[in-house]
Amino acid sequence: MGVTVLLWGIILFFLGSYLITETWTWGYRGKWTNLNTYIPASICISLHRSIFGPPKELVFSEEQLMRYDGSNPNLPIYVAIDGDVYDVTAGSMWYGLGASYHHFAGKDAARAYVTGCFQDHLTHDLRGLSEKQLKGVDHWKKFYENHHKYFKVGRVLHAPIDEHAPIPPPCKQAVGQKP
Ligand code: HEM
User: Fold this and answer.
1) 34-157 has which fold?
2) Computed from CA positions of residues 17, 20, 21, 22, in that sequence, does the dihedral angle turn out positive or negative?
3) Could you tell me the pTM of the whole model?
């Protein structure tokens, strides 16, 4: 009897959530709905793929992406590079609030990855970069793509860059660059 009531309670909880919010968890999406909280990410990904096939890509606006900058512990952390968005929650020690690479979280800062201008070049604007620097952008994309704990979640849509807008000038304190 008790077990039956409990089972019905659970079924109604999820069914009610789906009918009202069109999600199974009352609109909540965060740490506790992330399988990585319970099982290592690599096992989660292969399990998910073998059951459901390749995941559907999410599409973010720049504003939506900003929510995933690590300042809300209930949300995953995303970084974007040249339009591709990656889940780097497993690297919260680098990207979380107050961490050394927090400035990369919640945005597409592709330019800063190759210029080292961690304050002034937090933009996807790649105009004026050298061949070598553009290869550097690809290098970082591959880094996230092939990382055993990070995975791609989708794309961020950028407004087109105004071709008359000035190209971001080089900065003085470029990290990791020869003066
Ligand atoms: C353009 C310059 C640089 C960029 C774009 C960059 C970017 C990054 C990123 C994204 C990570 C996080 C890796 C992850 O997610 O696991 C990282 C880690 C790290 N970076 Fe940098 N970095 C730069 C320069 C430097 C310099 C100059 C140093 C040292 C003087 C440095 C030291 C480190 C260290 C120690 C780690 C941790 C690596 C590990 O143990 O896995 N980085 N870097």
Assistant:
1) Flavocytochrome B2; Chain A, domain 1 (3.10.120)
2) positive
3) 0.77
